[in-house]
Design a protein that fits this description.
Aldolase_TIM; phosphoribosylanthranilate isomerase activity; amino-acid biosynthesis; isomerase; TIM Barrel; two-stranded antiparallel ribbon; about 210 residues; 8-stranded parallel beta sheet; binds ligand LGQLAAA5; single chain; alpha/beta; aromatic amino acid biosynthesis
Length: about 210
């Protein structure tokens, strides 16, 4: 079964909807420039609603050590998503210090970017392929060329992100064989406002692709 991450959640209602619809991962974005930013106080409150069976992902962008340590203490995520220019050394250090699963996003522009991802082997626990950064480092609702993954042989766990919606996720899974799909802006009515019906439709589309 394909794992599902619903990201950029910021209200109890949409968080509960994602859990009820079968998300295996839920994500909170702690990045002030994002329309999905949640404060540490909000995130800590929401965190209490996440059942143990669902993994909580903290999405952050190149945070400095002290703020990152504060965020980790406040939220206690199961996963930290590094969505900036973080080096393999930094990710390894954080992972070894707090013993938390770590994902590194990669903005896939070309076959060369895919080759460069190799340097995160042994440092991150999962690669998250997304479209290249635009106005924001992520959460732009844009897909990359899935054909870049044709013939790619995964050397570590990975996930697919970038512009996924209820309408295209089935094709994305069939085309790439992604073991985990991650969606945020494709499930919104406006930036930062998640739509419960779209969350449900996304999870149903993933399950339909699994059954196909
Ligand atoms: O969602 C954001 O605002 C965001 C900000 C900074 C870094 C990452 C962000 N989101 C992540 O980007 C990918 C793709 O999102 P989308 O589905 O294309 O909107 C996903 O992992 C989001 O969690």
């Amino acid at each position: 079964m394909t794992d599902i991450k619903i990201c950029g959640l910021s209200t109890p209602e949409t968080l509960d909807a994602a859990v009820d619809a079968g998300a295996t991962h839920v994500g909170f974005v702690h990045y002030e420039k994002s329309p999905r930013h949640v404060s540490l106080e909000q995130a800590a409150k929401l965190r209490r609603r996440v059942p143990e069976s669902v993994k909580l992902v903290l999405v952050q962008v190149a945070m400095q050590p002290e703020p990152l340590a504060r965020a980790y203490e406040a939220i206690r995520p199961d996963v930290i998503q590094f969505h900036g220019s973080e080096t393999p050394e930094w990710i390894r250090l954080v992972r070894d210090t707090v013993k938390v699963e770590s994902w590194r996003s990669i903005g896939l522009r070309s076959a060369e970017t895919l080759d460069n991802a190799k340097k995160f082997e042994g440092a991150a626990d999962r690669l998250l392929f997304d479209a290249p950064a635009k106005a924001l480092p992520g959460g732009n609702g844009v897909s990359f060329q899935w054909s870049l993954l044709d013939g790619w042989e995964p050397f570590m766990p990975w996930a697919l992100a970038g512009g996924l919606t209820p309408d295209n996720v089935g094709e994305a899974i069939a085309r790439t064989g992604a073991p985990l799909v991650d969606a945020s802006s494709g499930l919104e009515t406006e930036p930062g406002v998640k739509d419960i019906e779209r969350i449900k439709a996304f999870c149903e589309a993933v399950r339909a692709a699994d059954a196909a």
